[in-house]
């Protein structure tokens, strides 16, 4: 049976009532540090290996490991798609064409960087294709297409903490609820972008009684770049 990867535990609590800017920023810095440490490349690779995606196994077993990830990994969101791009309720070794995984990722610090303020935290998506995994000799990129979706700012985490968002019953920050929140908010912002097609833009997304502000612009490569800049209190 494949090893299950639990969601990482956040090591501090925060009250459900609104706290001061200073206290919220202190907790946000701690949260950002913990998230960046977990979301590095080393942990990402270790978790892939832990569920069976190893270089010493056959391409078929590597594909089977990928198919299981949405079900056995609580540190990411995943979905299966067929050849027509339609989402599937369950994976199928032959009919599933692509597995998409959404997760938090931190980039590598610049050479000479003295602290983690040089790194950024992003909601990221990787698309892993059956054809590429089963035919590695002809694949351009066997590890799939990695797309940064939305950068998570320190200020946004501060406001989420200050207003008691994504908390468990024990007043702990829930990693899985935070990840789900980011995926849902990004998806709605992405929908607005494809409907309107105008950059730069600002999207105010309502989710679970709060309003999330995402700013979008065109990056140096001509791609859309999004950042979650803050969370506003609900409308009265």
Summarize this structure as a short list of keywords or feature phrases.
8 strands, alpha+beta, 33% helix, 8-stranded mixed β-sheet, 236 residues
Can you describe this structure?
- It is a single chain.
- The chain is of the alpha+beta class and 236 residues long.
- Helices cover 33% and strands 25% of the residues.
- It is built from six helices and eight strands, in the order αααββββαβααβββ.
- The chain has helices at residues 21-38, 41-50, 59-72, 130-134, 154-162, 175-196, and strands at residues 77-81, 87-88, 98-106, 121-129, 145-152, 201-207, 210-218, 224-232.
- An eight-stranded mixed beta sheet has the order 2-1-3-4-5-8-7-6, sandwiched between helices.
- Helix 1 (21-38) packs across helix 5 (154-162).
- The longest helix is centred in the C-terminal third of the chain and has 22 residues, at 175-196.
């Amino acid at each position: 049976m494949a090893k299950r990867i639990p969601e990482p535990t956040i090591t501090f609590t925060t009250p459900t009532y609104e706290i001061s800017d200073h206290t919220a920023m202190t907790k946000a810095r701690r949260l950002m540090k913990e998230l960046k440490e977990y979301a590095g490349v080393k942990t990402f690779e270790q978790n892939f290996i832990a569920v069976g995606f190893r270089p010493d196994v056959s391409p078929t077993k590597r594909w089977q490991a990928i198919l299981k990830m949405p079900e056995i990994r609580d540190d990411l969101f995943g979905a299966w798609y067929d050849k027509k791009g339609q989402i599937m309720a369950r994976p199928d070794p032959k009919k599933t064409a692509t597995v998409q995984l959404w997760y938090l990722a931190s980039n590598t610090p610049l050479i000479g960087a003295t602290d983690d303020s040089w790194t950024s935290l992003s909601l990221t998506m990787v698309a892993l294709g059956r054809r590429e995994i089963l035919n590695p000799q002809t694949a351009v990129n066997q590890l799939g297409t990695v797309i940064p979706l939305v950068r998570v700012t320190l200020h946004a985490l501060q406001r989420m903490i200050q207003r008691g968002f994504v908390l468990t019953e024990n007043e702990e920050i829930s990693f899985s609820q935070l990840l789900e929140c980011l995926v849902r908010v990004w998806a709605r912002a992405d929908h607005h972008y494809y409907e309107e097609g105008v950059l730069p833009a600002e999207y105010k997304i309502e989710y679970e009684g709060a309003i999330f502000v995402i700013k979008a612009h065109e990056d140096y490569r001509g791609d859309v770049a999004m950042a979650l800049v803050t969370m506003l209190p609900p409308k009265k």
